[in-house]
UniProtKB/TrEMBL annotation:
GO terms for biological process: fungal-type cell wall organization; polysaccharide catabolic process. It is found in: Secreted, Cell wall. Belongs to the SUN family. GO terms for cellular component: cell surface; fungal-type cell wall. Keywords: Carbohydrate metabolism, Cell wall, Cell wall biogenesis/degradation, Glycosidase, Hydrolase, Polysaccharide degradation, Secreted, Signal. Residues 20-29 have a biased composition (Basic residues). This is Glycoside hydrolase family 132 protein. Residues 20-39, 77-158 are annotated as: Disordered. It comes from the Eukaryota. Pfam families: SUN. Residues 80-92, 103-115 have a biased composition (Low complexity). The keyword Transit peptide does not apply. Residues 129-139 have a biased composition (Basic and acidic residues).
Length: 434
């Protein structure tokens, strides 16, 4: 389910609660009429098919099999029966099986039965405190290059991750660098349906759409014209005939493209530790996997899509949504599917909304509601040129569980958030403890 915005605000609260669908619209303080822009949501319906031995089984049968240990997901996402001890089942989100990790069987040898001589252990030295993460001032640590190179259409093998053409490899997700893989089982004039999303393996099966992250300041440029038949979004390049092909060469012949250049949008980290911001992989499987890891004392470009020149969902323009995790949580844990047991990933406490249309950028801070009521453990303020507010339509700040606007930050709420508009210059989300 997505929310189409009318006139009060570009961005609406969006979130995912495991196993539930939510339909909420939260009006923000109206300052400048906003265009009709569509906000990506993590809880868009995606149809998952469960197949065992060539036979389709129901989701209930699959869930029961995983629960009682008679079925597991093998490499490549296929179901197979289990003949030994059961494997604990991970969380199921949005009808897609998305474990954060796969338990490994122990391969260590059994301890020797020979008795060992007794000895008095020496006292262990005091452990040294872990060093703070080293600050990063550019995007070079993201493991990709060639962001401004044209992609060699139809030349790379499907099992080659295109990091030399700007795509950022995220190997910790278990998909050989890709952020998500979608394999439609049904295709007709209405669109794709029965879209299978494997949780391991790479982009090797013919017909797969393979999505990827881009460096800070850039965003994915590739998605097919044909989209989901029931509202699913599909994104990435395509594996066809064993080779990787662009799906939207009319938009760009490169894998990554910049957002708007009319406004300079940034994130500034004035904290004592790293803080991760995770963009929804949209269009795609809409997981929170596109990372921006920020470190103390540095500022980073935050991609702001230009709605007139980016993805449209069912004819509606779209913006970007980011999930902000608590201070100190590393990227590998922050930018992936989480669970209600901990406020990370899609259960992160707070969202940022960013978009540009018709000469105006809209920036929002709001609670990740109804997914979670958790409170972010640092403050975020939207500031303008030279740290001031002159080029902003108003003020917007999160601090201590409250989202406040007004000249003196005297208009506050705990969920709906706040929004500002800007038509020129710089605008920064400042992370700090105040």
């Amino acid at each position: 389910m997505r929310i189409a915005i009318a006139t009060s605000l570009v961005f609406a609260t969006a979130g995912l609660a495991a196993g539930h669908r939510h339909q909420h619209h939260h009006a923000h303080e109206k300052r400048i009429p906003a265009p009709n822009v569509e906000v990506p949501r993590a809880d868009t319906p995606t149809v998952t098919v469960y197949e065992l031995g060539g036979r389709l089984i129901s989701e209930a049968e699959c869930a029961e099999g995983i629960k009682n240990g008679t079925l597991i997901f093998a490499d490549g996402g296929d179901l197979e029966p289990v003949s030994s001890s059961p494997t604990p089942s991970p969380e199921v989100h949005n009808n897609q099986y998305k474990p954060s990790s796969v338990p490994e069987r122990s391969t260590s040898a059994a301890p020797s039965s020979s008795p060992e001589p007794e000895h008095t252990p020496e006292p262990e030295p005091e452990p040294e405190p872990s060093p703070k993460p080293r600050p990063h001032s550019d995007s070079g640590h993201y493991g990709s290059s060639g962001v401004d190179r044209d992609f060699p259409d139809g030349e790379l093998d499907c099992d080659t991750f295109p990091s030399e053409y700007g795509a950022v490899p995220l190997t910790y997700l278990g998909l050989k660098g890709w952020t998500g893989i979608q394999l439609p089982r049904v295709s007709n004039s209405r669109g794709y349906d029965n879209i299978f999303s494997p949780t391991s393996g790479g982009c090797s099966e013919d017909g797969s759409y393979c999505s990827y992250a881009c460096p800070p300041g850039y965003q994915k440029s590739q998605w097919p014209e044909l989209q989901g038949a029931t509202g699913q979004s599909v994104g990435g390049i395509k594996c066809r005939g064993g080779k990787l092909w662009l799906t939207n060469p009319g938009m760009s012949k490169r894998l990554c493209m910049k957002g708007t250049t009319a406004i300079d949008v940034k994130v500034q980290n004035d904290l004592g530790d790293q803080a991760c911001v995770c963009r929804t992989d949209y269009p795609g499987d809409e997981s929170e996997t596109v990372p921006l890891a920020t470190f103390p004392g540095n500022s980073y470009p935050l991609t702001c899509p230009e709605a007139d020149n980016y993805y449209n969902w069912q004819g509606k323009q779209t913006s970007a949504q980011y999930y902000v995790n608590n201070e100190g949580i590393p990227q590998e844990k922050a930018c992936r599917w989480g669970s209600a047991s901990e406020p990370v990933g899609n259960f992160a406490p707070l969202n940022l909304g960013v978009g540009y249309s018709s000469g105006t950028a809209w920036l929002s801070i709001f609670q990740n509601y109804p997914t979670t009521n958790a409170k972010l453990d640092f403050s975020i303020e939207i500031i303008g040129n030279d740290g001031g507010y002159d080029n902003l339509s108003g003020r917007c700040k999160y601090s201590n569980g409250k989202y406040c606007s007004g000249e003196n930050y005297n208009i506050c709420n705990s969920r709906e958030g706040c929004t500002v508009a800007v038509t020129s210059g710089e605008v920064t989300f400042k992370f700090s403890h105040d």
